[in-house]
Structure formats: C-alpha cells, structure tokens
Amino acid sequence: MRIGIAYDLKPKAALAGLPDDAFEEYDGEETVTFLAAALGSLGHQAVLLGGGRGFLERLQGEPVDLVWNLAEGCGGRCREAHIPAILEFLGVPYTHSDPLTLAATLDKAVAKRLVSQAGVATPPFTVAHTRGDISAAARLPGPLFVKPLDEGSSKGIRGNPICRNRGELEERVGWLLAIYGRPVLIESFVSGREITVGVIGNRVSDGGQGPALLGVMEVLPRGGCDPDFVYSLEVKRDFANRVSYKAPPDLPHSQLLRVEEAALAAYEALECRDVARIDFRLGEDGVPYFLEANPLPGLNPKTGDLPILARLMGIEHGELIRRILEAALGRLERASTRLAAVPEAAVAAGRI
C-alpha cells in the first residue's frame, strides 16, 4: 500500500513571542523517519504528506491508499481533528481516532466528564477561562494541580504546578492564561504513583476483537519514591537522567487489574480507535484516577512513552507499528463491508 504520513514538525528555532514549548507536541524529523522505515519494512511505501495548509494540495498530488495520522494541527481545542475531518470529507481512510474523539480528548474537562460517566474515577476539577473563575476552585479538595485545558506533552506544566494556597493558585493560573492564552484546568492533586497504560484495538462493532492492553507502565523519579512527583515538561525533556520506567509496575495483582479495567473503560468511553495511551495517578487510597487520554501518542522509539512501554513489554518499534496498522486495517475493512451492504439492503427493502 501507499501510506501517507500526516504530521507537524517542530520548528528548527523558537518563534518570537511564543513560549519555548509552544510546539512541544509536534514531531521531530526523526520520528517521521522511524515510522516511514517501519512501514517500509512491512512492505508499504511511505509518502510524506506533512500537515498544515499545504496538506490538502500534497494529498491531491500524491494519492494514497491510507493516511497514517500523526498531525497535531494548529489553533484551538479542535486542532487535532482538522486532518481527520479533511480525510473523512474526501473519503480517504486513515489511522487513529476520528475527529470527535480527538477533539473530546484534547479538552481534558470534556474527557473527564465522559470517563466519569463510565464509572472511572477522576480528580474533582473546574475550568478557569479568566482569573475571575478561580473562586470556583474553592470547593475542590487541595492541594490543586493546574495545567492548560487543551494542550498535551506537558505544555505549561513547568516548575511546580502544585498549588497549596490561594496565592499560589492565583499566580499560576494568571501566568498560564497570560502565556498560553488558553483556558486552565484546575483539579485536586492526587498524591501517588504516575501510571500510563497503552491500549490497542477496536470495538467488535468497529471490526475489531475488542481493545487489548499493550501494557501498564510506571514513571518513577530517579531520586527515589516521591508521592508528589510530577511528570513535568522539564522532567520529560531530561527523562534519561530524571526518571526510570517500569512495565509492568510493582503492584499487587488486584490493583494492577483495577488499573487495566479503568484504562479499557476510559478507552471505550472516549471511543478511541486503533491505539491510545491513558494516564492515571494511582492514589494512596489505591484508586486509579484518570488524568487524560492521548489518542495520538508519540511514536519516537527513543523518547515516546508508548514505544518505551512497548519495548519494556518485549515489543519492538516495528512490531508496535504493525499492530497499530493491523488494528486500523481491520476496522476499515469492516467499515467498507458495511458500506457496501447498504445499497443491497436498500434494494431488498424496496427503497432504491
């Protein structure tokens, strides 16, 4: 197959007037190179389509059978939905979740509401659109954790985002609103272990065999056990020196099972497709608290949490790519069969 890769690349230099993590979610050229090589090793031809305003023109000039979507988009909480929406409009099949799921998961408050309705615990929260909204946080059990509402890759989670009094909260929220110009999520901080879960697959109704666990991984600070450890931007940028990863984590079987069940429930509630990474804090009460979901997880085999998790579980990068692709193709085959059956059913019913 000719598989187009949709992606956004980090600029080679910081842009004036923007924070230095403004494009933290964007991929480096290395990630795209590794993905293209993995697809090539599976017998496919990779076509680099990029993203942004030129994506549509490049797609029209380079017809493909499938688009592998890595694109983060630009502008607002629906930015990750831009490329998939274009592809759906054109009838071009693609990997990963659909526009609705990508928009819902990027807005962390929307995602938390959806998973909590499915019975998955999440820390109490509120959203601040202005400094005046901070008063609503008074009802939340402290301390409080503050981060941009609709960003990823730990953008804006810098220094110490844990606020233990009103003054710290006002300062942190005001800084985020001023620097990033986006709403701010304020939630009760869960003191405990940092856990992430990889999930691959699709619901049976979508042509899959049901979502399956890739594995559960704990992110541990190298300085020793710290229940207030935060996987911040600075930590991620220096992960080799500041954290270690363990998959599966040292947890009692019953607790590990509880994390796995919560991850699968969140994946289903958000209607993720093909692959996603689900983040939790394992509270001191033993409850896995949902933080957020990433249906476009980083795929750099050296730095991406999902490939690191997979490798610790004995799954190399090429095999990880094969499994994601296989999940997408199974889903697309089912959708194609279902669409082909619609005219036949309509004829039989005398409608056309």
Describe the structure.
The protein has 352 residues and is α+β, with helices and mostly antiparallel strands. The chain folds into three domains: 2-94, Rossmann fold; 124-188, ATP-grasp fold, A domain (Dna Ligase, domain 1, 2-Layer Sandwich); 191-331, D-amino Acid Aminotransferase, Chain A, domain 1 (2-Layer Sandwich). It has helices at residues 29-41, 55-61, 82-90, 99-106, 108-117, 166-180, 233-237, 239-242, 253-269, 305-312, 317-348; strands at 2-6, 45-50, 66-69, 125-128, 144-148, 162-163, 184-188, 192-201, 212-221, 243-246, 274-283, 288-294. The strands form three sheets. It has a five-stranded antiparallel sheet, sandwiched between helices. A four-stranded antiparallel sheet has the order 4-7-5-6, with helices on one face. A three-stranded parallel sheet has the order 2-1-3, sandwiched between helices. Helix 1 (29-41) crosses helix 11.
The H-level CATH homologous superfamily of the largest domain, spelled out, is ATP-grasp fold, B domain
Per DSSP E runs of 2 or more residues, the count of β-strands stands at: 12
Percent range for β-strand residues = 15-25%
Look at the structure and give the CATH class of the largest domain: Alpha Beta
Structural class by SSE content: alpha+beta
When the domains are counted, the total is: 3
User: Nearest-angstrom radius of gyration?
Assistant: 21 Å
Q: Between the first and last Cα atoms, what is the distance in angstroms?
A: 34 Å
Pattern of helices and strands: EHEHEHHHEEEHEEEHHEHEEHH
What is the third-level CATH name, the topology of the largest domain?
Answer: D-amino Acid Aminotransferase, Chain A, domain 1
User: Residue ranges: pLDDT <50 for 5 or more in a row?
Assistant: 339-352
* Largest beta-sheet characterization: 5 strands, antiparallel
